[in-house]
Amino acid sequence: MSKANSYLNGRGAQGNVSNKFDAFTHEFRSDFLNYCAMEDEEPQNTKTVLIDTFPKTIVNKVNSPDVGMGYSLNPYQGCEHGCVYCYARNSHEYWGYSAGLDFEQKILIKKNSVELLEKKLQSKRWQATPIVLSGNTDCYQPIEKKLEITRNLLKIFLKYKHPVGIITKNSLIIRDLDILIELAKDNLVQVHLSITSLNEETRRLLEPRTATVKKRLDTLEKLSAAGVPVSVMMAPIIPGINSHEILPLVKTIAEAGALGVGYTMVRLNGAIGGIFTSWIQKAMPDRAEKVLNQIAECHGGNLNDSVFGRRMKGSGNIAEQVSQQFKIAKKKYLSGRISPTLNCELHAEFKQGQMRLF
């Protein structure tokens, strides 16, 4: 295999795909790729680029009826974690970039996130309802370690006693344990930690720049021990890759203190179908066709199903088997565990950042 056609380590997508909104498409010609191989050069720059943006709003209403959240907040657009299956890749096309490599190497930083959130929570028209960090892209991706935007957002949620949910794959969340503990005292926070596999090699291929499996399990233990309500999302389930891990994974997270577990079936919507297909043909060539065929079996013969209520869990025999395994796993390992309901009652008294006295 030539250097130009070899597996691109450290990234999920193995190249850029055309943006559906662009009038022109770009492709690497074979003569250029051969030249790069002979000269021992990379055909494309894969370094991460940070781009500052200043949006007018930061809290987004979620209209999809089957995502389990009403509002989301994403301080970053694009995600360096590089999860090859990520549904959020398609959103990068609206910014003029590719859903492929661009999504994980061109990261948009919403510099005024904290100010916009504070303004939103101070609004007399805003009624407290949970806002989820990372409804689209991970709020604890690598650049957060330096910028601390998510940490400062959590300080605002605490200041105004407003409920917040967090979805992440990154152990960096432990840095903010001090704030999370304070939020948890008033039932103002829930954490949903994404753990897709117990196999480190699978994790490395599927999610190249995320925390290791061990670090995520350690994170789960630390959050639970500190009294922060934490559940696990085993998402997505990919037949032929991690679908055999359901019972052992639920057993492991239960032992680490998880209060619950959820899942979604992989669906390769939009540009992600081509990105995933290209990836698996390089990363797992021996089982690529089998996995793709089993994914299609879960979605009526296609790699994606966009029908609300069916798209997240899939349909058919494989999807039903997965559903039954989760029912068994929850009953066996998580019976009686309940995540506390987020508290929406305190915020009205803290509209100005302190309790209203008169």
TrEMBL record:
<keyword id="KW-0479">Metal-binding</keyword>
<dbReference type="GO" id="GO:0046872">
    <property type="term" value="F:metal ion binding"/>
</dbReference>
<dbReference type="InterPro" id="IPR007197">
    <property type="entry name" value="rSAM"/>
</dbReference>
<keyword id="KW-0408">Iron</keyword>
<dbReference type="GO" id="GO:0051536">
    <property type="term" value="F:iron-sulfur cluster binding"/>
</dbReference>
<dbReference type="InterPro" id="IPR058240">
    <property type="entry name" value="rSAM_sf"/>
</dbReference>
<dbReference type="Pfam" id="PF04055">
    <property type="entry name" value="Radical_SAM"/>
</dbReference>
<feature type="domain" description="Radical SAM core">
    <location>
        <begin position="65"/>
        <end position="302"/>
    </location>
</feature>
<keyword id="KW-0411">Iron-sulfur</keyword>
<dbReference type="GO" id="GO:0003824">
    <property type="term" value="F:catalytic activity"/>
</dbReference>
<dbReference type="InterPro" id="IPR040086">
    <property type="entry name" value="MJ0683-like"/>
</dbReference>
<dbReference type="InterPro" id="IPR006638">
    <property type="entry name" value="Elp3/MiaA/NifB-like_rSAM"/>
</dbReference>
<protein>
    <submittedName>
        <fullName>Radical SAM domain protein</fullName>
    </submittedName>
</protein>
